[in-house]
Amino acid sequence: MVIVSAKGLVKKYDSLCAVDGIDFEIGRGECFGFLGPNGAGKTTAMRIIHCYMPPTSGEVKVFGMDVTRNPGEIKARLGVMPQDNNLDPDLTVFENLIVYARYFDIMKKDSTPLAWELLDFVELREKARVKIDQLSGGMKHRLLLARSLINSPELLILDEPTTGLDPHSRHAVWGKLNYLKSKNTTLILTTHYMEEAENLCDRVAIMDSGKIVTVDSPSGLMSMHGGRLEDVYLKLTGRSLEG
To answer: Which pTM value belongs to this model?
Structure first.
């Protein structure tokens, strides 16, 4: 079953075309990755999917609903883990989850046990009563993940979910995401980490200058083009993932 589809998706900012006529489909239970360096258009595509901004032209549907016509219904069924930390520093770890649950009309009697369950999932129960500035970077990422799951989303969107993390924290987040995959949660992520794409993604869309160059599984791309994913990206785009 198709959860997300895009046809002729275009997003322009004045004279800049950030997303240039892309097409893709994402199935239920799939982990789909947008792979590319900063400026490739992957974050813009993600923001359109989760109704943060409208497309300039083209069609994007999530759960069979148009993102421009049904943003409220779509947002109620998805979770978003942003790249940047936007946790409330004035609240404790536990309070951040309880307050966020209100956006989904989840009553406190229901959000309290759910918050404890999510803190157990991301291994932060012992930090429940501390303020955000007392957390390490890895802990903040795990809390962002917990918060994105507060409404039990069918679709989870993750923008560079492990950027800036040390290897141990990165692998901890990967473990949680792989568990969610095993429970048939659909995941969409942006990344420029090759190892991340290989560990998590069923398929990746290689993006460059607002266009999708190709879509395939990481293993399929490496088998077809030879070498590592870094080498495949360079071969297909003429650019490294650093630039």
So the answer is: 0.92
